[in-house]
Design brief:
With about 230 residues, the protein is of the alpha+beta class. The protein has a domain of about 110 residues: Pseudouridine synthase (2-Layer Sandwich). About 15% of the residues lie in helices and about 30% in strands. The protein has 4 helices and 14 strands. Strands 1, 2, 3, 4, 5, 6, 9, 10, 11, 12, 13 and 14 form a 12-stranded mixed sheet that branches. It has a two-stranded antiparallel ribbon with strand order 7-8. The radius of gyration is 18 Å and the shape is globular. It starts with 6 loop residues before the first strand and ends with a helix. About 30% of the residues are buried.
């Protein structure tokens, strides 16, 4: 039975869907259905990739319907003119007031994993910012910045996240390395810790703001899923 698509918005230029958790954008080694094949079967015309979400992540996924729209949006992402906001359930509550920043460069690790470009034990939290002292920073690391705000504190806090850079697995790595892994994240979290168990990766791309062809910002929202935003 084909997966029913939850379409947020569509016109001659764009298709915006609410991607479900647990399905990869493209075919992977698991042999499971992939979202691109489902889109190809259910949506007429050609679609062009603009960005991507991890297999376990749900939420706003943007696709272009014309190559010139894809090129314009790719430029916007590369120039960081796109604003992205995520919701996440994490283990514990970061000890912050208001908003804070995770300013930790990333680099490739083993296989398909990524890591902070420096020793975990040297990460410091000062002036609402997690960072590494300059002497402990790997010069090959790629600058990576995430803004964090606590929406619901508790044993499993609900966070609002704004990645200002778009590194692979950035949110998952950043939160794990500051000691608050996302629930259900078996790649970067603590898979044997009962406190971190969850039915899925508890990460949701809630909203996306992009510049339109006229330069005005356009916002697309994927409703927050009940399993993530429900009371702790």
């Amino acid at each position: 039975m084909p997966l029913p698509l939850s379409i947020i918005y569509q016109d001659d230029d764009l298709l915006v869907i609410n991607k479900p958790s647990g399905i990869a954008l493209f075919a992977d080694r698991s042999g499971s259905d992939d979202l691109w094949s489902i889109l190809r079967d259910q949506i007429p015309g050609t679609l062009y990739q603009v960005h991507r979400l991890d297999k376990g992540t749900s939420g706003v996924l943007l696709l272009a319907r014309r190559p010139e729209v894809q090129a314009r949006l790719n430029r916007a992402f590369n120039k960081r003119d796109v604003r992205k906001f995520y919701l996440a359930r994490v283990l514990g509550t970061p000890d912050i007031r208001g908003s804070a920043r995770i300013d930790l460069a990333l680099r490739k690790g083993r296989k398909s994993r990524f890591r902070v470009a420096g020793p975990r034990e040297q990460i410091r939290f000062q002036q609402s910012r997690w960072s590494l002292p300059s002497q402990h920073q790997d010069p090959e690391g790629l600058p990576s910045l995430t803004r964090v705000r606590v929406l619901q504190p508790g044993e499993h806090a609900l966070l609002l996240l704004q990645p200002e850079t778009g590194r692979s697995h950035q949110l998952r790595v950043h939160l794990s390395w500051i000691g608050h892994p996302i629930l259900g994240d078996h790649l970067y979290g603590r898979p044997n810790d009962p406190a971190q168990q969850f039915t899925r990766l508890a990460l949701h791309a809630h909203s996306l703001l992009i510049p339109g062809a006229d330069g005005r910002l356009r916002r697309f929202i994927a409703s927050a899923p009940a399993d993530i935003v429900g009371n702790d």
